[in-house]
Amino acid sequence: MHGIGAWMPPPPGRMIASSNIGSAAFMPHKHNAAGRHHIPKTRHVVMNWREYEAGLRRRGSLTLWITDAAIAAWAATRRSTPGGQAVYSDSAIQTCLMLRAAFKLPLRQAEGLVASVVELLSYELVVPDHSTVSGRAAQLTSIARDPLPRGPLHVLIDSTGLKVYGAGEWLLERHRQRGRRAWCKLHLAVDAESGQIVAAALTGQGVDDAAQVGPLLEQIEPPIEQLTADGAYDGEPTYQTIAARDDAIAVVIPPRETAVPSARFEVNPTARDTHLLMIASLGRMGWKGCFIN
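^ that's the sequence the OP posted. Answer follows.
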């Protein structure tokens, strides 16, 4: 707080020129504050308060219903082959698992939730117990991901950091000792049209992003039409790795600010040289406009 301070004796051999402790003169980030450029904060004025509040209330509303088809398919169909007869259908087991995943509940709590919903709806249905749900869940057919679009893919490559919780976190919480933080890198290749992850690689934090372009491309079987990445993947080694897969792939990677054309750009320019020449003539915004649909 302004005006509250404490006096401390100066170190040996050093004089204090002023005792105005707590003033703005001792705060470097406020030096020449009057002459600094200030960016005003954007203010969003809500004019339709009634609709705005109704939208906030809808965020917490819970609407749950069970269709007639789901009720009719709750019991398992009679089997014509020898063996035990199942009581619940796969649809009933999937309903319990879906509610469990949606509300992040253990199996027993999920059983109680389904039973309460059935009771509130006044349906005469027998809810499967948690042991049955656990055993039948392993027998359900896995949900296969949607097939990729036909034709060549437009692949987006990027990476993100993952913090690894280990002994360092335990030392910090238990003994207030800061341990060494561990990080991993998750490299992803995503189809731009469907948003599906077509390739992934997990490495240590010291691995370069551009070094994982090759391992990601090896996991992609369909042909690739275009590959887009950020400036961290810029460099001739990346272009060479992509060309080794297919030299017809269009590479869209923004060059770095310090990037320079290759020695043979006047005779036989590479794809990276072409990007640099386009940026020199059109600017970066104009270069981006050429590749954004």
